[in-house]
From TrEMBL:
Signal peptide: none annotated. It comes from Paraburkholderia tropica. InterPro entries: Auxin_biosynth/cation_transpt (IPR050982), CHP04046_FMN-dependent (IPR024000), FAD/NAD-bd_sf (IPR036188). This is Flavoprotein involved in K+ transport. Pfam families: Pyr_redox_3. It comes from the Bacteria. Keywords: Oxidoreductase. PANTHER family: FLAVIN-BINDING MONOOXYGENASE-LIKE PROTEIN (AFU_ORTHOLOGUE AFUA_4G09220), FLAVIN-CONTAINING MONOOXYGENASE.
Length: 432
């Protein structure tokens, strides 16, 4: 049964014998949930944060060893907790990110209950919500879902037909090249994770076969500055979703691939190909012992480069309009071209011993038993505020702006929702 159908048939429950009542339940103990807790504490709103694992679990357990930020450190600005290190234009590595988040955890001192999974959220007949968990049932006046939007790894059904001798993992399980068995590695997907994992394997000397998707790319540095710095000056990161040319459709966009590794640089798949990485189009199927690829490698590489040059052109225009003195710009020119589209690869003779699936995640909000979702399982909302009074979402990509699912925009979104929560909790104060 789909989430949409399941939610639409829900009716207010009879009054349960709840173990406990709190004003606000925050679901998720990552940076979004902790940011929400910080803002609620400023207003003196009693609340609890429920986290099924441990706080900031994803950063500790689902990142590879060489992982680093792709956005500069200065964009790390959680509530009342900006980056204060000595390298604002650098890119924190995994251990540095965890240390910074550990400081934020202490800074917030949130009322967190770890190891508590939320299994169902429903309406109460008399108002508010029933929150069923692995540790009992709570009632709440309001609920903030801050559990992110990347829940279920996407792995195609064709994976079931691949030989058991080929080790298959998802991007969240990848740690380093040495943890994979000998042989070539097929990386499926060229978004942020896929491109960076392919680079990690390539730099480690592994033979990499990369199935290239439709992800765009951007420059790391252009005309003397990080592209992020230019875009910040151009107010791109302040653009609300309703002002974006794609409107809510931007939420479905794949992130541009680039890296902060070794001080930051472009990721150029064409350069990797010239150095021996085998590039194919998008993986389509596995038939009669052969991997089948779509004949779209050239189109996907060209499209990524067009986006790269288009972003740079927008920076050129901004520089010209503002009369800024900056080094000259340039157009990216391909350093490698595929000679032909290769549509098949015999798995047995390829030497591929492992596959890393890097084609994203699906949201799973099936436990939110309320009629707010679209046909793809995403909640309908306006800046995190749903049609169900007292139910909110926080930390989703483009919830409000580009930074909504990142360290740079969560503070603003959390503060906005905290204001809405207070207005509903204290109507007398709102009237005054």
């Amino acid at each position: 049964m789909s989430t949409q159908t399941h939610a639409a048939t829900s009716a207010p429950t009879s009054t349960p014998l709840c173990d406990e009542h709190v004003s606000v339940v925050v679901v998720g103990g990552g940076q979004a949930g902790l940011s929400m807790s910080y803002c609620l504490k400023q207003y003196g709103i009693d609340h609890v944060v429920l986290e099924k694992h441990t706080v900031t679990h994803t950063w500790r357990e689902q990142r590879w060893d060489a992982f680093c930020l792709v956005t500069p450190n200065w964009q790390c600005a959680l509530p009342d907790y900006p980056y204060r290190g000595d390298d604002p234009h650098g890119f924190m590595k995994k251990d540095e990110i965890i240390a910074w988040l550990d400081g934020f955890v202490q800074h917030v001192d949130a009322p967190v209950r770890e190891g508590v999974a939320v299994t169902r959220v429903t309406r109460r007949a008399q108002g508010g919500f029933v929150v069923q968990t692995s540790a009992g049932t709570l009632s709440a006046d309001q609920v903030v879902v801050a559990a992110g939007g990347y829940h279920t790894p996407i792995v195609p059904r064709m994976a079931e037909r691949l030989p058991s001798s080929v080790v298959q993992i998802q991007s969240s399980e990848y740690r380093n090249a040495g943890a994979l068995p000998e042989g070539a590695v097929l990386v499926v997907g060229s978004g942020q994770s896929g491109a960076q994992i392919a680079e990690d394997l390539h730099l480690a000397g592994r033979k990499v076969v990369l199935a290239v998707g439709e992800a765009p790319r951007c420059a790391r540095f252009y005309r003397g500055r990080d592209v992020v710095d230019w875009l910040a000056d151009m107010k791109y990161y302040d653009m609300p979703v309703e002002a974006h040319p794609l409107r809510e459709g931007v939420r479905d966009n794949t992130n541009h691939y680039v890296t902060g590794r070794d001080g930051g640089r472009d990721i150029d798949l064409r350069k990797f190909a010239s150095e021996g990485m085998a590039l194919y189009g998008a993986l389509d199927d596995y038939v009669d012992g052969a991997l089948r690829f779509r004949p779209n490698l050239r189109a996907n590489l060209d499209s990524a480069d067009e986006t790269y040059n288009r972003i740079n052109a927008s920076i050129d225009k901004f520089i010209a309009q503002k009369g800024i003195d900056a080094p000259p710009g340039e157009i990216y020119r391909a350093v490698w071209e595929p000679q032909a589209e290769r549509s098949a690869l015999d798995l047995a003779s390829s030497g591929i011993g492992s596959i890393v699936w890097c084609i994203g995640f699906r949201p799973d909000f099936s436990w939110v038993d309320l009629p707010i979702f679209n046909g793809r399982g995403y909640p309908g909302h306006a800046r995190g505020v749903t049609a169900q009074e007292g139910l909110y979402f926080l930390g989703l990509p483009w919830l409000h702006t580009w930074g909504s699912g990142r360290f740079s925009g969560i503070a603003r979104d959390a503060a906005f929702l905290a204001d809405r929560i207070v207005e509903l909790a204290r109507p007398d104060a709102r009237a005054a």
